[in-house]
Amino acid sequence: MTDRTEPLSYGSYLRLKELLDCQRPESARLGKRAHDEMLFIVTHQTYELWFKQVLHELDAILAIMAVAPVAERDVGRALAHLERIVTILRVVIGQIDILETMTPLDFLEFRDLLAPSSGFQSAQFRAIENKLGMQRGRRLRYNESPYEAALPESERSRALDPEHAPSLFDRVDAWLSRMPFVRFRDFDFWRVYRDQVEAMLAGDAEVIGRSHADNPAALAAQLAQLEATRREFATVFLPDEYAKARQAGLRRLTHEAFLAALMISLYRDEPILQTPFRLLTVLVEIDEALSLWRYRHMQMVSRMIGSKIGTGGSSGQDYLRRTVDAHRVFADLFNLSTYLLPRSRLPALPQAVARELGFAWAR
Amino acid sequence: MTDRTEPLSYGSYLRLKELLDCQRPESARLGKRAHDEMLFIVTHQTYELWFKQVLHELDAILAIMAVAPVAERDVGRALAHLERIVTILRVVIGQIDILETMTPLDFLEFRDLLAPSSGFQSAQFRAIENKLGMQRGRRLRYNESPYEAALPESERSRALDPEHAPSLFDRVDAWLSRMPFVRFRDFDFWRVYRDQVEAMLAGDAEVIGRSHADNPAALAAQLAQLEATRREFATVFLPDEYAKARQAGLRRLTHEAFLAALMISLYRDEPILQTPFRLLTVLVEIDEALSLWRYRHMQMVSRMIGSKIGTGGSSGQDYLRRTVDAHRVFADLFNLSTYLLPRSRLPALPQAVARELGFAWAR
Amino acid sequence: MTDRTEPLSYGSYLRLKELLDCQRPESARLGKRAHDEMLFIVTHQTYELWFKQVLHELDAILAIMAVAPVAERDVGRALAHLERIVTILRVVIGQIDILETMTPLDFLEFRDLLAPSSGFQSAQFRAIENKLGMQRGRRLRYNESPYEAALPESERSRALDPEHAPSLFDRVDAWLSRMPFVRFRDFDFWRVYRDQVEAMLAGDAEVIGRSHADNPAALAAQLAQLEATRREFATVFLPDEYAKARQAGLRRLTHEAFLAALMISLYRDEPILQTPFRLLTVLVEIDEALSLWRYRHMQMVSRMIGSKIGTGGSSGQDYLRRTVDAHRVFADLFNLSTYLLPRSRLPALPQAVARELGFAWAR
Amino acid sequence: MTDRTEPLSYGSYLRLKELLDCQRPESARLGKRAHDEMLFIVTHQTYELWFKQVLHELDAILAIMAVAPVAERDVGRALAHLERIVTILRVVIGQIDILETMTPLDFLEFRDLLAPSSGFQSAQFRAIENKLGMQRGRRLRYNESPYEAALPESERSRALDPEHAPSLFDRVDAWLSRMPFVRFRDFDFWRVYRDQVEAMLAGDAEVIGRSHADNPAALAAQLAQLEATRREFATVFLPDEYAKARQAGLRRLTHEAFLAALMISLYRDEPILQTPFRLLTVLVEIDEALSLWRYRHMQMVSRMIGSKIGTGGSSGQDYLRRTVDAHRVFADLFNLSTYLLPRSRLPALPQAVARELGFAWAR
Fold this sequence. Notes:
Methane Monooxygenase Hydroxylase, Chain G, domain 1, 63% helix
């Protein structure tokens, strides 16, 4: 603990002197002052400040979920951190509106001065991706190089170290795998569930038949897709099929975790599952928000520089477009709805089980 | 003019009795009341009300721009209508947040009851696309059928008729083509411009060389792309090349219109070009907003139904994903920035020309 | 159940024919077509559609909370309905951006034609206020008349009936009052809490002394306010003081309910309190969103019509400005933070109590 | 121009090392780490970065408008800077959503550590207010002291210096006062206008009579207000009355400027007035956005700390509430709509005048 000699002021507390000294336009340094470069700098600096906050939240969540088992009261806290991340990402996405007030012509004034620096060099953004659990093998390659090639040596560890620690994905998988209520001693939930699925798919077949009675080509196409759906369900219920799907990269969660997530989605109204259900929902929202950010970022870049090379000397636009969908971490959760049943078909939980999922108080 | 017997009230003016009687959940009709179906109905009805308003604005713009030449004072009015459309689309996009409060499980409760109706059947949305100028040939096919196949016969004309009238795209093209200031009697603007482009591309080549000196593969890739850029510039300056690009579907504006749009972007500070520049910008924003709407809609559908068939019996998700980028109308404007020059390289306008672009008052 | 003769289509399902026939501009009827009147109508109609949805959600919540005691699993469902209301209100607030694209001059074109109808006549909005629990006695009077005087007779019951049924406020009060964990058999929580409060206020006094050592006037003012804070705390702990504050209109919740709400805020991390804490938070957000809506609405009206009379013949602006703060329902919850203690000062819960607040599973 | 020895990287360009070293939580320094203090710091630092950008834009605008007369082409540029400020303020307002993810209990953890620093000490925010043109005499006093008393000596000049330079308000007033088209040689515009106003007020009187025929008290109240409106119009047309209103603090613009602003609002479709009209509109939007920011800020503070003292030892909430409406700069423009006439009553401009307001090209 350091002692203060002066009373704390707003400016000294926020270190405004230092903070507001970090904006150094290249165009000013080179004597060709371009007004909008300040906007470019400030926008990216606020991005980085928010990224720091996102990392701060992720670290808190990772600490909570590193404990096994995670205490129920701490799941609520992890949820609050995750929801804050979504709120931050929404503001970060909104900042693109500000960048878009810079016209392409104004950007041209200083664009070349920034080479070869590039947004691909944001070590904090890479760290966020890695802490969430983006897999190296799933990353698109950029300029035929691994992503860290773009980073200056001094910043690589910030981005790369999280790759070697358990990610949020890993922690969520472990937490789900440990959920005790998925196995029901005397009650074979998953068998009942499977019967219901079969009944539902039979119903879908009928709907398709009715809708496309007069269009044989469409009928055939739809039935083929239904058959594919049936095969997808098999991958959920049959451990071997699930393992195959996982090996093929179509699933990433372990089988245990996947079933727990499905169970939570189906019985989310049970008191013990309310907070876990929200947590799964917010993970999907984070993925969605990051995709949306990538999408809007790509739109903005393409409008700003057309088909010219990016400031990093990259053919960035194509790369950006492809990351929008590819760089998703919780795709498994995103797709859970494929396997849901309407509540009306949902097998009722046995009394004893339902009681276990309630509060001690109520017993 | 009808006479009123009673004083106007808020309720009678807005026809609230009729309006609030239009929500008829199928689940209620069939005795399986699903709470969230009301949300589904209300959200789509508000979409349709906003679509009606967008069409109202588009009709006003089309009327203004049907006159040749369009009076300068009316360009300002057209701009205000276009800006309103953007504001409406932002709210429409925001409504997806509301739909996302419906969980997949809740949607399942009534999803099957809606078959075979489908959002693909929104005649007003098709009319908006057609009035903006979406080309039939550019539309992705859905279930191997033209889009109107999905529409009930009674609503086809609403969607299809605008296809046969001049669209906003057509009107903008004609308005741009007529811009008088593109031709400068004694001043060969485009020749000077071309020289500057050549100088700039030479500079880019140097930047690339510097950035990738130690990475021959990246260097080659970047240089190849620069060469492609050079060829793209040729398509702008050489009428024959432009014609070829247009025939190949890479351009849609006429050559005259394209050059005028480029000119406006370059000299947007001239008084006479300020409003036209905003108008071009807003056209891009409309395209961007519609793309964003499609993107978020696709995200939402995919989260809601996973890989199951849509309510229209469609494998809608893939279709939706592909329309995001494909169904763009003003792609030419979106890409204008490819051909811009930094202000510092911009040829100065001759005095006489500059005066013509100012106000009568100032002469 | 009625039978359908035709397959459901998007248009027939949404009753688009009827819905899109409800826009009848007065200016058109009177032969002085004003373009922007359509915007005015559509915006208000979408408001009313969303109000209908908010009422639909409120009814679902009221049904859930009418049961005593409310099952824990249903609290989660009530919460989801409330969160949806907040999301809807955010879009409703955003719609003001659309209305603001109408300039005052354009509004003037048809404003007089609408007299004497007025937004004060929205029966659904009054019903929302009443279902939330706005008290007749707290409403500001408008034109010296009770609010229903502005409503046409045919719509009064829609607005007024909810006044005579238990409101959300009433249900929340009852639900809080029944919370069992507020009384701790052997553990006098509130005594410990009070001791801590005293300690904290003593600390605040010291802070104030330090901050204003050289400014006696400010020092006196701050100390007087601290004394007021101390008296406010007394109103929480002493039933007689609480009763007095309630009689004076400074509190509305019963004492039992107020203490439960405070308890929930303090121990929100306990599993059994996580969902109740969110529910209280969302109630505050609803109040906040409605205040924000009133604030922006007032700003917009004032910008639109200056100090002229409103369409209802009202001097509406002043009235609107005063309702912003006055028409709040859950002010008690809004002010809870006055009585919080830092976690570090929070008395630890006895083991036995903490266990009761957890899940059956974990015992 | 300094030489670089290393190629520019994203991190060195943005000075990320320094920027990300400016977050120094007091709670960490004192060994009582409070997780949410980082959020508090980052949010306020992003505010300050955006404030710096707003000042950067204001400086550009002030430079443009310091020239007399302002060239038409530069008015377009000033407009773009102002619109950017509005876009930035919208993001700044949206950041309150992030702060609100911090619960009152979490804020309590570190609130006392920050004393006596306070948001009232933001020198940049004061500078923004002063550059816009807030008048010292109009500022509410806080703790009985002028606002600069709260600022540390080292930061006072940043906040205070702009008070002594011409503000945006001053520049706008001068720019409006110089507008040449307000005086029409042979055409007494304002006399015609006044006649129309009289006719309109007579119409309003009739509307009021009709609406309140059966409510004498309301009728009297409305008529009294109409009379007040008539007197308000007098203040516009009669220089002496205007001078009195100005002396009483009800107007701030000079008479010349006020009439020019009214003229621009009435004839905004004329080519030469399109950009000035947008500029006036955006000034109102800036005032509106700042008011909204103050309003939401006040809501948030009140929710966060209840009626306790602020971190600056202030009874800040009341102060904040009162600044919402009081600290407005362009109130004159906000109220312009009081004096508008429907287009249908608007006197037509003489040919010669209309031609002057068009483009040279068209003559």
